[in-house]
Amino acid sequence: MHLGDIRVPAGPVLWIAWALALALGAFALVAALQYRRIALWLPIVYALLAMTAFLAWAGAGAAGAITLTGLLGGSISLAVPLVFGALAGVIGERAGVVNVAIEGQFLLGAFTATILGSLTHNPFVGLIGAMFGGILISLVLGAFAIKYLVDQVIVGVVLNVFASGLTGFLYQGVLAPNAATLNSPTRFSLIKIPILGDIPVIGPALFNQTFLVYLMYVVVALVAWAMYRTRWGLRVRAVGEHPHAADTVGIKVNPTRFWNLQLAGAIAGIGGAYFTLVSVPQFTKDMTAGLGFIALAAVIFGRWDPLRAALAALLFGFATNLQNLLTVLRTPIPGEFMLMLPYVVTILAVVGFVGQIKAPAADGKPYIKS
Description:
This protein is mainly alpha-helical and about 375 residues long. It is about 70% helix and about 0% strand. Strands 1-2 form a two-stranded antiparallel sheet.
């Protein structure tokens, strides 16, 4: 089933959306003054209306059309590394280990995916290599933070710098001179799911994607379910909230933290594979561009919950795609503002929750068995 393009006038849409948004804002203000709880749907609808008004204004004089399918599909694709990074952060911090090294796991995962994918011409082999790249960073993080009780944030920052320097050095010395054989991995191609891919609007956006996007759907659902409904999830949350109580009932706190950190590293490595097996079919120095830190912000924004963190990562992916789209369409918005849009959204999201949310009680605190 194919629907033709539906064109809407920018002016009326802009004013109607803003009028409805102002009405919702007034309703929320009255509810707050009367100390009534504001329903979750209200800020979501308000954000959608405000975004509709913004897109109507930005696209009015643009040199092209803003399509809903392209906006949604691009946002999901760009959010893939952020979602995997956010899930890695959630698992690590739920177990009591602050994983600041997501950026380094992205970089090493992208690097190993490039080499193995180039040598074998098989993106799945590259994906497995990316997982091992993420695990290597986690092994070092776990050894220093859990066994030797080094400050977890400091170790994470050092590992990010180490991964940046190592991959940059190897890129200059190994990949660049041998680009044809070592820096030309085979990318994942688009896979359209029958019937589902033909659903108007959301079908092409959700079900005409690469293998990594479908893997993202499965991993998000699996982690979100397992975190609260399995023995594994109970143990992870126990060692991250009350490690002493967990120890008294026979849970080995430090081994549990260590192995879950390796699981988080493998998931972050999958996110790193996106950069060279989906986005750009070659590795370049520092190509992750700080997205590991945005993934860490998504963990906080998502309140250390797998599903909420994934949704937060999708929000940041939407901001990135919006920046790219409005830049291409040559909208009246200054280019400098568009470049900083994803990071502004990240800062506003995290600052807005300061003091309102709490991390797991033992997050970042080493456990010493008494």
